[in-house]
Write a structure and sequence with these properties.
Layout: H1 3-20, H2 22-32, H3 37-61, H4 67-87, H5 91-119, H6 125-154, H7 156-177, H8 200-206, H9 210-231, H10 233-241, H11 247-270, H12 274-294, H13 299-327, H14 334-359, H15 366-396
Length: 410
């Protein structure tokens, strides 16, 4: 894999830390700013909404920029709004900084996905995706637990300062690894040497294909399940499992370790054997969320299941992203943006649905049950899409059937 992919992963590490760290800071933020836990959970949803809106929008706005410029603008903006978030005493301002940070994050990730797909061989997009998402999983392993520890020792604001500090070397590394003149426009690799960016309308037409739309919806459902459970892990661990506040960083680190294992394995299989990952992994993911909800009061079971669910969630999720990038080959600029948006539709809806269940009085196990329902919906949709594809193949013959994967991915 090209070295620049690992530089991009460093930036994604900082951004992933910011996106996920609130799961360990929500109780402290709620207490400090005098809001309820579900209201503080809306900070995660606000970030996800910004990602949903920002991914395609920022991809469109920056499509004619050199990728070097786009990546640096988005990353510097991300850094600066975290400084604002660290000093504000207003929940409304903090909420606004999360939206702006998400817009910058979305633009960065959309361009980074497009860059990764352009830098590697046509049959290596899954591995390139895994390298980028490896930054996110490392954020879960190291960044998020460290944020939780900082929050416990020096207050939640320290975690925001830490994200800003970690973003600085990412900016420096991008400047050094992508010197002026080697960058390419956001539209296509090599466009900096005179290759025109693809037509935006043509890309949008390519993104309307049914199989691609199904894959995007599946990604939203699976990621919704992941974020629904992950957002409320801290109160689950303290109030249901009984591990106390000191157990929160450990559980978050285990989830991150599992996610790293899952995205690494998914990256190796997404290019060659996506069917087993999506079919078997999807079914196991459903069983795991149900088991987690039933056994949430047992510390040993929680320790095991949080690792397993992190691995399964990211193996299935990263494979779906790779399938989207393969299906969106004719939309190199917007494919990454729409993949990012789809995942964050889930990241916005998941915590919101979990919050609804909490407000309704169903307790801190409720988000796990909501996660199980979301995966059930994904499996049902994927099964229906696979059945339609099989009928079409039987009707049209081998020439008319497309190579597909379970859960509706292309």
């Amino acid at each position: 894999m090209p070295f620049v992919l690992y530089v991009l992963a460093l930036a994604v590490f900082a951004q992933g830390t910011s996106e996920f760290m609130l799961s360990g800071l929500i109780p402290d933020i709620a207490a400090d700013l005098a809001v309820s836990i579900p209201a503080a959970g809306a900070l995660t949803s606000a970030f996800a909404v910004g990602m949903v809106v920002g991914a395609p929008l920022m991809a469109l706005l920056s499509r004619r920029w050199p990728r070097r410029r786009a990546l640096l603008v988005f990353l510097v903006a991300f850094l600066l709004v975290h400084v604002v978030g660290a000093v504000t005493t207003s929940f409304a301002v903090l909420l606004a900084t999360r939206v702006v940070a998400a817009l910058a994050n979305a633009g960065f990730l959309a361009v980074a996905l497009a860059t990764a797909a352009a830098l590697v061989a046509p049959d290596a997009k899954g591995r390139a995706t895994a390298v980028l998402l490896g930054g996110t999983t490392l954020a879960c392993i190291a960044g998020v637990p460290a944020g939780a520890v900082l929050g416990q020792e020096w207050g939640w604001r320290a975690a925001f300062w830490a994200v800003a500090a970690v973003s600085v070397p990412a900016v420096v590394a991008l400047v050094r690894s992508l010197p002026g003149g080697t960058g390419v426009p956001g539209g296509a690799a090599g466009a900096g040497a005179g290759v025109a960016a693809p037509d935006a309308r043509g890309e949008l037409r390519a993104l309307r294909r049914p199989r691609l739309l199904v894959a995007l919806l599946l990604g939203a459902l699976v990621n919704g399940a992941t974020f629904c459970a992950f957002t409320y892990l801290a109160p689950l661990v303290t109030d249901v499992t009984g591990l106390g506040a000191t157990g929160v960083p450990v559980v978050l680190a285990l989830f991150g370790l599992g996610s790293f294992v899952g995205v690494t394995a998914g990256g190796r299989l997404a290019d060659r054997r996506p069917r087993p990952v999506l079919a078997v992994g999807g079914a196991a993911l459903l069983v795991g969320w149900v088991a987690f909800a039933l056994a949430a009061g047992a510390a040993v079971a929680v320790v095991v299941l949080v690792f397993v669910q992190g691995a399964l969630s990211f193996a299935v999720g990263s494979t779906l992203i790779a399938r989207v990038l393969y299906a969106a080959a004719e939309a190199p600029t917007l494919g990454g943006g729409f993949a990012t948006a789809a995942l964050n539709v889930g990241a916005a809806a998941g915590p919101w649905l979990g919050g609804v269940a909490l407000v309704a009085g169903f307790g801190y196990r409720a988000p796990l049950w909501v996660s199980a329902l979301l995966v059930t919906a994904a499996l049902a949709l994927g099964g229906a899409a696979e059945a339609v594809r099989a009928r079409r193949r039987a009707t049209e013959g081998p020439a008319g059937g497309a190579t597909g994967v379970p859960m509706g991915a292309p």
